[in-house]
Structures are given as C-alpha cells and as structure tokens.
From TrEMBL, chain A:
Protein keywords: Sugar transport, Transport
NCBIfam families according to UniProt: PTS_HPr_family
Function: General (non sugar-specific) component of the phosphoenolpyruvate-dependent sugar phosphotransferase system (sugar PTS). This major carbohydrate active-transport system catalyzes the phosphorylation of incoming sugar substrates concomitantly with their translocation across the cell membrane. The phosphoryl group from phosphoenolpyruvate (PEP) is transferred to the phosphoryl carrier protein HPr by enzyme I. Phospho-HPr then transfers it to the PTS EIIA domain.
Source species taxonomy: Bacteria, Pseudomonadati, Pseudomonadota, Alphaproteobacteria, Hyphomicrobiales
Gene3D superfamilies xref list: HPr-like (3.30.1340.10)
Name assigned to this protein: Phosphocarrier protein HPr
TrEMBL record, chain B:
Organism from which the protein derives: Kaistia hirudinis
Boundaries of every PEP-utilising enzyme C-terminal domain copy: 248-530
Native organism taxonomy: Bacteria, Pseudomonadati, Pseudomonadota, Alphaproteobacteria, Hyphomicrobiales
Keywords from the named record: Cytoplasm, Kinase, Magnesium, Metal-binding, Phosphotransferase system, Sugar transport, Transferase, Transport
Catalytic residue positions: H183, C492
Identification of the protein by name: Phosphoenolpyruvate-protein phosphotransferase
C-alpha cells in the first residue's frame, strides 16, 4: 500500500489506516512524536488533495478524526523528507505497534 | 436533610458501592481579575506549564493504560496549536481565563459533535485540560482531594482527576453527564470502580451518603435505613453468589420440578465470545448484527458479514445460533441506512420495516447469512415484525438470495426464518404468525410498546415495567400461541436475566431464555428455586 517517492528534499507517500479505532489518542501520539524527530516539515492529508495539516501537531492530527479505512497521505519538504515519509508510512503499516487487543482502549 | 433521592442513569462500570458523597467542583465557573495582555499571556503560559508538571507527575504514578492516556493529554497541552487561539484572543484584549476557556470550548464542541463515539468521548480529555489550566489560573491549584472510598458526584469527571484519586479503599462515580465510552469510564471498568452516567435532575442539596449500583445504573442519595440494609445483604451475598454461580455455570438449567429450561446467551460482537466457554449455555439466542453496521468505514459488504457470522457459528459448534437481521432505527440510528428526522423513531421505520425499505442492503445480509448457514446451526430472526406479510416478503427475499448463490455455485443453506415478538400487534394474536419458524419475545420493546413508555425517556422509566401484568399476560399468550402452532418460543430481553421476573416467566410457561453472558450463572441459580407452577 505504501508508495513513497522522493526527489530533491521533497517526498510524498500514502498508506491505508487499518487501526481498529482509527487515528485515535495513542496512534496520534505515536505519529506526531515520530514526525517531530525529523527536521523536514511534514503534512498529513486524509485525501490526496488534502486538506493538509501539520503532522507534528497532535491537536490538528486528532481534529482530522480519521476513521479506520482512511487512506492517509503524507508529504514532506526538507533534507530528511524521504526518511520521514518512509518512517511514518511504516508506522501506520505496523498498525502503530498495537495488538488488536487494544482496540477500543484508545 | 433533603431526604432520600433515587435516580437511574446509564451503567458505565459495574459494581456496588456505599460511601460519603463528595461533590466535584465545576471549574467552568471560576473567575479571576484580569491584567494587561502581556500579564495575561504570561499568566496563561505559567498555568499551562504548571498543568504540564501536574500531568507529568501523575504519569509517573500511573499504570500503563493511565500513563498512555496522560501522555496523550500532555502532548495536547504542549502543542502550540492548542493555545494559539487563546493567545490570539489575549492579544486582542481578552482575559487569560476567558480566552483559554473559549478556545478549548470550541474544540470540545467540535469533538462532541462527532458521530464517532470514540472521538466524541475525547471531549472529556480536552475538558480535563481546560479545567486544570483554569484551576491554576484562578490560583487555586487542585481542589482538596476527597477521602478514599468516597462517592464522587458531579456533572462530569476528568481522567486525570480519576487517576489522581486513591481507589484502593473503594468509592464510586455518579455523573449527570458523561458517557460509557469516555476514557474515565474505561478506567473505572479496569479498576472495578462502580460508575453511573447520565443521571438527570440531581438536586443541588447537600447529601452526606450515597449508594451507587453500577449494574442497574442506580444512584441513591442519603439512602433510607432499609436501602442500606438491602445493600449490606447484597454485598455479603455477592461473595457467596460468585461461588454458587460458578458451581452451576456449566450445568444444564432446571426449575425446582426438574423440568429443563434452556439458557442461551445474547451476543453483540463476535469478539466477546473469545472469553466465553460454550459449555455454559445451550446456544446463542440473539446475535445483534448492528455492530457490523456501525463501523465508521460505512455499511459492511457481504464478505465482512459472512466472516463475522461464520466466526460466531463455529464458536457455537452444533448448538443453535439465532442471528437477528439488522435492527437499526429507534434509538439505534445507522448512517446511510436509517431515516433521519422521524418525529418518533421508535414508532417509525426500524427493524424489518427498514430492511424491506432497503432491499439492496437486506439482500447482502441474507446472502451472507445463507452462506454462513453452512457452518453451523443457524436460525435467522426478523425484528419488529407487525403483520404476517412482512415474514412472507422477507422469506421471498431469502429465497431469491439463495437462488442467486446457487446459480453462482456458492455453497449455502436455507436457515429457518423466525420472528421477534416485540410489537403488541403480534403478541395479542400470535396464532396469525404461523409463517414464522419460531418466536423470540423481545421483552424490552414489548414492554415499551405495551406501556407506551419510551425506553430513552427517563421521566417515564418507572412506567416501563416489564413486570406489568399486561406484559406478563401477553407473554403467556405468545407461549400458548407458539404451542398451538407447534413452534419454539424463547425470550431474549432483559427480563430473562432478572431473578425477580423469572418466576412469572416460568408460570407463563416459558422454558427458554437468552441473557447477557455474565448473567448465566445468576439465572441458573434463580431458576433452580422456581416451582414453575401455574403454567
């Protein structure tokens, strides 16, 4: 499902959100924490045309209220943009390292 | 002394507690004197910093689940995007407290408005942050901690307040607002703290003691001596009961005469079954399929439904499994399926009425059920049937679905098609419904429709009594009607799990009940004490 592509410090990728309860509290914390480890500016969109929000802001990521089954789009600009998008796509693909047993526990 | 006050709300965490009452202060009404924009900005930043320290300190003491919840709150609080609208308002001349409260309220309202119960429940996390910062702005810091074992009474309780309290000595929570899907309700369930939400009309008077019953959703303020005595008996019984229930749990149920009674279970989601031993029941008397239709991803496709039904049938082995076709509408709206804006949805297009209005969606469910029938002892049940022709129409659609599947070479089987008896129009003349393969009495709706007391209106809750002689008379009539038609009859409403009402059901001749899984032991024990005479 991942399709990261990179050229000259700009990168984009998309991934299907499979987490049972959507982009909720714990997944959002993990996603924004990871995003903040990169220097690149990173944006998250719930559609291919956005609207784009700051992937480092948990307030904005939670406010997107993305349910399970949403395709998340990432785009980044900066020296480590490629790594950033690849890492974020990977986190979502790993289902935020949460076993299904945690579903609903938020 | 204002005297005893009893209220019923929604159960959010089970258990029974008695203790002194502590009112939770409402932080939304605090006031302070405002300074210049620079002073206000500094005051807000300082209050946010202190609040962050509070949360970090709570995290250090919390367990994994609690810490994860607090980490989420801390991340929100430290995010500049959270405070930006408040800082803008301060620059425009608003005082820090109003600016913060308004900024947070806007976001709280946005979450509350969400259709997704999980996101809607996050409003309480933001309320928690709002209150905590406002508390520091007012200079009060945290209010005095209630003594351990206290019954907390208030509008809503924040997760960080919950985690800051000592629950090791008991205690309970009773709220006028709140939700069973809130973070604090999840925490209460995991810590075995009884909790009731949605209690309307709690008087402002000073109460000294309270009972909270987290199973029935009951709050009793300043209970009478006999209510306290009943509680003590219940609590001492509880320990004995657990042992006695465990002893009979896997035994077949009988009434005192030795006559066998089938005890089945009601299931709302397949994942509930993982923790249940099939040996405790005679089958599944009701599978609610609404869970499949309430996913934020939209209506389920045939494959998703088939897999869910098959999982349930395989769990049950050769025991019967009654799956009810989707019972949306009434108090269970489903996006893309139910009809919005009906003036009285309980009397509107719900249950089989809606399925017949939406044949494309109904067809997928019938196909999935016919395919799943290959994997167990399946029966299909139609909710809200009112006239016999509804059975004929559903049967024709089931027949068409099976013909399609056979033409496509997909293995399938035609399961028996029965009905819920929950509309008085059926219960009065059950003998006209011989097209049904079985009856299952839905006592909750039958009670609501017989007493004309809506289930979701607290003010008439007392009238909606399943023990009303009219309800019992209708049940007896349905049991007799089923006997004349030579078909099975069972009951799958809350009545079947109520030891007070089981004697009347047995006297009415009923010999099969389907109950929530945690009630199986209690029901088997209660049945053993019933003579069942008068049938």
């Amino acid at each position: 499902m991942a399709e990261p592509g990179s050229s000259n410090g700009a990168s984009a990728g998309s991934v299907l959100l499979t987490h049972a309860v959507g982009l909720h509290a714990r997944p959002s914390v993990k996603l924004t924490k990871l995003a903040k480890t990169f220097g690149a500016s990173i944006e998250l969109g719930t559609g291919p045309e956005g609207p784009w929000i700051d992937a480092k802001s948990i307030v904005k990521v939670m406010a997107a209220k993305a349910p399970q089954g949403t395709t998340l789009h990432f785009r980044a600009v900066g020296p480590d943009a490629g790594e950033a998008v690849a890492a974020l796509v990977d986190l979502v693909e790993r289902d935020f390292d949460e076993a299904a047993a945690h579903a609903g526990n938020g | 002394m204002p005297g005893m006050v009893e209220r019923f709300g929604r159960a959010a965490a089970p258990g029974l507690a008695f203790g002194p009452v502590h009112r939770i202060a409402d932080r939304t009404v605090l006031v302070r004197r405002a300074g210049s924009p620079d002073e206000e900005r500094a005051a807000l930043e300082a209050a946010i910093a202190t609040a962050s320290e509070d949360i970090a300190a709570l995290m250090a003491a919390a367990d994994d689940d609690g810490a994860a919840m607090l980490e989420f709150q801390l991340a929100l609080l430290e995010d500049d995007a959270l405070r930006a609208p408040a800082l803008d308002a301060i620059a425009g001349g608003t005082d820090a407290a109003s600016a913060w409260r308004d900024a947070l309220n806007a976001q709280i309202e946005d979450y509350r408005a969400s259709d997704d119960a999980y996101f809607a429940a996050r409003a309480s996390d933001l309320q928690d942050l709002s209150d905590r910062v406002l508390g520091h702005l007012a200079g009060g810091g945290a209010e005095a901690a209630p003594a351990p074992g206290t019954i907390l009474l208030g509008r809503d309780l924040t997760p960080s307040r919950f985690l800051a309290l000592d629950w090791s000595k008991g205690g309970a929570i009773a709220l006028s607002e709140g939700s069973p899907s809130s973070h604090v309700a999840m925490l209460a369930r995991s810590r075995s703290v009884p909790m009731v939400v949605g209690l309307s009309d709690i008087p402002d008077a000073a109460f000294s003691e309270a009972i909270v019953d987290g199973e029935s959703g009951r709050l009793v303020l300043d209970p009478l001596p006999e209510q306290r005595a009943a509680l003590a008996a219940l609590q001492s019984d509880a320990a004995l009961r657990v042992g006695a229930e465990a002893a009979v749990l896997r035994e077949p149920a009988h009434i005192a005469s030795g006559e066998r009674v089938a005890v089945l279970i009601n299931v709302a989601k397949p994942d509930e079954l993982a923790a249940i031993d099939p040996a405790i029941c005679d089958g599944i008397g009701l599978v609610r399929t609404e869970f499949l239709f309430s996913s934020p991803a939209g209506l389920p496709d045939e494959e998703t439904q088939y897999r869910a039904y098959r999982t349930i049938l395989e769990w049950a082995g050769d025991k019967p499994v009654t799956i009810r076709t989707v019972d949306a509408g009434g108090d269970k709206p489903v996006a893309g399926l139910t009809i919005d804006g009906e003036s009285n949805p309980f009397l509107g297009t719900r249950g089989v009425r809606l399925s017949l209005e939406r044949p494309a969606i109904f067809r997928l469910q019938l196909r999935a059920l016919a395919r799943a029938a290959e994997h167990g002892n399946l029966k299909i049940m139609l909710p809200m049937v009112t006239v016999p022709s509804e059975i004929d129409r559903a049967a024709a659609l089931l027949g068409a679905a099976i013909e399609e599947l056979e033409a496509e070479g997909i293995p399938c089987r035609r399961p028996p098609l029965g009905i819920m008896v929950e509309v008085p129009a059926v219960a009065v003349v059950p003998e006209l419904f011989g097209a049904a393969a079985f009856f299952s009495i839905g006592s909750n709706d039958l009670t609501q429709y017989t007493t004309a007391a809506a289930r979701d209106i607290a003010a008439v809750a007392e009238l909606g009594d399943a023990g009303h002689p009219a309800v019992i008379a209708l049940i007896r009539n349905v049991v007799e009607g089923a006997a004349k038609l030579g078909i099975d009859v069972s009951l799958c409403g809350d009545m079947g799990g109520d030891p007070q009402l089981l004697p009347a059901l047995m006297s009415a001749g009923l010999r099969a009940v389907s109950v929530a899984p945690p009630l199986v032991g209690r029901v088997k024990l209660a049945l053993a004490r019933i003579s069942g005479e008068g049938a």
